[in-house]
Queue: 2 jobs
Job 1
Amino acid sequence: MNQILDGIVRAFQLILSGDPTVYGAVYRSLLFSGVATILAVLWATPIAMLLGLKDFRGKSIIKGFFTTLIGLPTVALGLFLWLILSKAGPLGFLGLLYTPGAIILGEALLVTPLIVSIATNAVEAVDPEMINLAKTLGASESQASIAVLKEAFNGIIFSNVAGFNRAIAELGVALMVGGNLAGFTDVLTTNISTLTARADFSTAIALAIILLAIVFGINLIIVIAKNPHVLLTLGRMPQ
Amino acid sequence: MTVLAELRNLTQCFGSRIVLENLTLQIQEGEILALLGPNGSGKTTLLKVLAFLLKPKSGEIKFQDETVTDKNSERMRLQSALVFQRTVLFSTSVFNNVSYGLKMRKMPKAVIEEEVRKALKLVKLEGFEKRSAKKLSGGEQQRVALARALVLKTRLLLLDEPTANLDPKNASIIEEVIATVNRELKTTIVMATHNMFQAKAIPHRVALINQGRITEIGTSADIFGRLSRNLASFAAVDNTFAGTARITDAGTTIVDVGNGVQIEAALQKQGETSIFISPQDIILSKNPLTSSARNVFRGRIIQISDLGSLVKLTVDVGKPFVVQITKRSFGEMELNLGSEVFIVFKASSVQAI
């Protein structure tokens, strides 16, 4: 219990002191995981639209494949990518290993199955006649797909947020292909791991609290953006 | 009369199932054409083909003398609008729903606002612009869906069972709108229905459709005058019965429709005849009622369908009768599948067809 309290105190100290190591790790966590999520959304959304709207042979196998990959251990994916991106690997010529690019690529691949699965469910939940409705009102094929996306908006956002949460909280990929190089590829999770190994528990707990605060804060912003009246409800709560 | 649209030798399949078979149909400009047939007869598929949403397996579709192909179907779709049987609304305001098609057509904002206002007035939903469409009642939602199609002023308006699942008030509003739009805007309307009395009252022509084929087509007077027995055989036309009539000493008619069911009607009919009793004219009771009604039958509930504010019940008294009651009554009477009930209706409610 004392360690946790020390950790909370240390967290405030680190934030208020503007510690460059901590702020650097926070910045890199947000940057790498944010870009990874955007990349994943870009290729996962069309896949989800296809799986959600079209019927074709093998569809349930593909859906099952993505669902299974949600549980992919991050360290296993990290190892696999390390082998591919290492100098001896087929993509070694890209020189990505132990760079931010490798972490971004790894995290994007990690969260893709999660985003695809949730987004597909969201699209499937849209009324199956929505596409025909949009078309009969004059929409083109692409405009009709946008209409479906809009109806699935809440589910799509949820899939994106879930993807970001998974990316920023993962350790295995960042460690294996990022290398935890100070000031370059270290992020919050790799720092927490390193500090714990060094028995610097109060700082590790502090970083964990900061990571939780970031995840909680971002998710809260999304909730409020979707439902502004939540603020009014909170304001009306008894003193 | 000018032919607006024409289907020639059209066949449509879903997998191995033939839904429309070698169908040929001409739609005259300015008419209201009813497609009358039971559930599963192909009415909805035919409407979707006319809306250029479905490409037929074989056959030809012509619209204003131009053959519809993959290349021009998107352009052709701007000439028609289909209102689905099951109301589908966007998760947004009434205004955004009704204005969607106008926005797709890139109309100016001021024009959109004015046209939406007029369309909502037509369906008696003035002032509903800002309301959330999905929070309206079932009848109001269906009127929004209709306004959304009407606002586009397309050459062809397609309506799939426009008043099914609606209470009489909303059904009446929609029927009035259909007649007004055809009369004043000269919109050609094709409407699918299994409501025989709607098919009799509103359209200029009626096409009977069964198992993907058009079996008869003609004016309402022709169809209902000549083909009453065929109509009565449509399983999905509720409460129509064919039987043998005999006139009683009291001047009424008893029609034996089989299975021990004998219906008394305030008519003069003899011999083979077909009759109809509107579901709205039948009272449902858990106990036998003492009243002036001549027809009282005991039976069991064999089917229950939720229609929003109404509940549709099928009661087997030897023959199946469809009854409509409010959801409130359904709850208060604590009815379930298998419940024993009495159906009661007056002799004057029995109509000959």
Job 2
Amino acid sequence: MSSPLKDILESLIFISQEPLTIDRMTAVLEGTPAEEVQAALDELIQGYAAAARGIQIVHTGGGYILSTHPDHDRWVRKLLQIERKNKLSSAALESLSSIAYHQPVTQAEISAIRGVDSTYTLKTLLDKKLIKIVGRKKAPGNPLVYRTSERFLQYFGLNSLDELPSEEEIGKILQEEKSSEG
Amino acid sequence: MPENVPEPLPSADAVVALPASDAADGYQVRLEIFEGPLDLLLFLIRKKKIDIHDIPIAAITRDYLGYLDRKEQINLDREAEFLFIAALLIYIKSQMLLPRETDLAEQEDPRRVLINRLLEFQKIKAACSILRDREEDQLLQWKRNFLPPLPGESELDFTEVSLFDLAESFFLMMKRRTAADTRVIKGRDVSTEEKMKELLGLLRDGQVLDFLAYFATQESLEEALVSFFCLLELIKSRVAVAVQDELFQTIRVWLRKDARRAGHHE
């Protein structure tokens, strides 16, 4: 191979529209062992981080993708003429996190967890492709069953569902809330 | 939300400012509205520093109904759901008042079901606050896997459509035409080149083309088919982009920016 592996990887990640997985990289670089690819990738990422550049390589959605540096958000928005990015509504976020922790789950189950009807919110989340329908439950009425999507992981910068806030993190938040009221 | 936003109540502890991050972004501080009954219950439990595992049902029910009566801080669209939990509270209290021969074991506590729900909901809310932080971090990091939105339509979230979506819309449109049962007089032959020019012209002038509306103007099946192929060709050669906002809605087509600038794809 004429150019260093690291530089080839940089090109591959640059040209990918979606996060590029290690599997895809090794498939493209036929014959290069996955460990070598991983090592070159680590080197590349560190290179970006050390040089304090305007772009960075982020590990999200199970793969690697280029993104702008968070400090440059206002300039990017100015260029794209976007005032501010829309955040999820609190109802949408609540439904989404209910689904994330309880999937596969039906609309009725989500509504029960939240104590409010969630039909409309689910529709919004489906439109945003943050959740997907994975089938029907074998129960009276055969209700639809929902799961979070790949885009969900990317949206929150997660690589898998294992990276969702853990019991400990949640416990810490609850503890903080309790003490802040004392 | 009712139109007459209430003055802060005398019991000032009911007034809760939104998280500082929101306020910093230019939002007004406002009264917290309880979106759902579980929100309100958790708030009351915290306010009274009650142990969630040992809720004094009578006291909580009284406070809860107080909020429901004032209606100022509850999401009125959800009134039925607030009332449902009120009924559940009263039911639990009645169960607890029933005389029993022996003391209840822990798992037979009539409050058990409600407590479990509250604990679970509390966890979800805590997870939400963590996810919200992550969302804010992520929104600052721009990636290339999004399309620059059209001027004036920045609030829409576009998703590029697949060939199947396009084909589906096409067949839907053809079905509509068949249903209309118009008698078509066989017209001139349509050449791909002419169609391509026509399409490009339309895209340049109008900038955005409504896919279904465009095909509805086609005179014959043949003409519509040729247009469809031209469109597919334009998308394949990455001259045009096709975007659908929502399932089953029309697909809109416009020229890619670079193609518009070059302006010579004939």
